[in-house]
């Protein structure tokens, strides 16, 4: 903390940046930013993926129906275990109770 306000802080800041660059390095050595496409290619190489391949994403989107079917099966199992608790059933029960309360014949 330099109270005099001289250029000592700027030098120390530059020195910190240089040390950080030495520690962590830069992909292209100069510290210039890589383009988005280059970054995606490097990431694909790092994770063993093929860059620019879109057939996997379309096949994954088609598997959403499988998830919905699986959750539908889970809901059916839950309905068997606990009984059906749907909004329609609840509405019908409310109507029946109201009819009993007011003495209406509902057939």
UniProtKB/TrEMBL annotation:
<keyword id="KW-0597">Phosphoprotein</keyword>
<feature type="domain" description="THO1-MOS11 C-terminal">
    <location>
        <begin position="72"/>
        <end position="103"/>
    </location>
</feature>
<protein>
    <recommendedName>
        <fullName>THO1-MOS11 C-terminal domain-containing protein</fullName>
    </recommendedName>
</protein>
<dbReference type="Pfam" id="PF18592">
    <property type="entry name" value="Tho1_MOS11_C"/>
</dbReference>
<feature type="region of interest" description="Disordered">
    <location>
        <begin position="1"/>
        <end position="37"/>
    </location>
</feature>
<dbReference type="InterPro" id="IPR040746">
    <property type="entry name" value="THO1_MOS11_C"/>
</dbReference>
<dbReference type="GO" id="GO:0016973">
    <property type="term" value="P:poly(A)+ mRNA export from nucleus"/>
</dbReference>
<dbReference type="InterPro" id="IPR052240">
    <property type="entry name" value="SAP_domain_ribonucleoprotein"/>
</dbReference>
<dbReference type="GO" id="GO:0005634">
    <property type="term" value="C:nucleus"/>
</dbReference>
């Amino acid at each position: 903390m330099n109270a005099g306000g001289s250029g000592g802080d700027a030098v120390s800041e530059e020195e910190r940046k240089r040390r950080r660059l030495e520690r962590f390095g830069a992909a292209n050595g100069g510290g210039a930013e890589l383009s988005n496409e280059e970054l995606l290619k490097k990431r694909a190489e790092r994770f063993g993926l093929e860059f620019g391949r879109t057939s996997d994403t379309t096949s994954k989107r088609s598997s959403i129906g499988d998830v919905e079917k699986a959750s539908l099966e889970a809901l059916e199992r839950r309905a068997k275990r606990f009984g059906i608790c749907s909004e329609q059933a609840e509405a019908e029960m409310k109507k029946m109770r109201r009819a009993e309360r007011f003495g209406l014949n509902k057939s």
